[in-house]
Amino acid sequence: MGTSQNEQQSISDLVGQYKALPGALLPLLHAIQEHVGHVPDTAVPIIAKGLNLSRAEVHGVISFYHDFKTSPVGRHTVQICRAEACQSMGSRQLEAHAKQALGVDYGETTADGAITLEPVYCLGNCACSPSVRINDDVFARVDADRFDELVSGLSLEEGVVK
Ligand code: FES
Fold it and tell me: Rounded CA gap, 8 and 111, in Å?
């Protein structure tokens, strides 16, 4: 997906604001994510130049911290728990189903911009594995059918599905 001129401008402005700060890279990346919604690949050369770093250094930091998104985020976030208790109750199969049903991999957003799929490591709901979080709500014992039911509501309408 391309980056709009407004996004490029915001990124350049933020680089200007942060570049004099010691240890500017992380706060700058957070600021870009907050203002633009993600840190696009096109930001890397602008950041590298502004902060006098190599592109590889900037890219390395973006990919090390899972908090940074490199593509636009969907209107809803669906997270599947990959930690041990959930895995023992079938979260691997659930994640394979989810990727296929949504047509995306982890970190990607559905073509309609509705859903971003992410892994998560324990939602504190281990007794009711496998667990899925949709936006701020955690759902227990989610199997493939229940998953389809939950996400079909998200794609069809803009309200939060319970
Ligand atoms: S392991 Fe999935 S909720 Fe704890």
Answer: 23
Q: What is the amino acid identity at position 43?
A: A
| Pocket mutation for ligand 1, best pick of 122, 128, 132, 138 (most atoms within 8 Å of C-beta) | 122
Which token pair is 2? 């391309």
pTM for the full model?
Answer: 0.69
- Nearest atom (ligand 1) to Cα of 91: 2
> Cβ(133)–Cβ(83) under 8 Å?
no
pLDDT tens-place string over residues 116-139: 999 999 999 999 999 999 999 999
Residues 55 and 48: beta-carbon distance below 8 Å: yes
Which domains are delineated in the chain?
5-64 (no CATH), 76-156 (3.40.30.10)
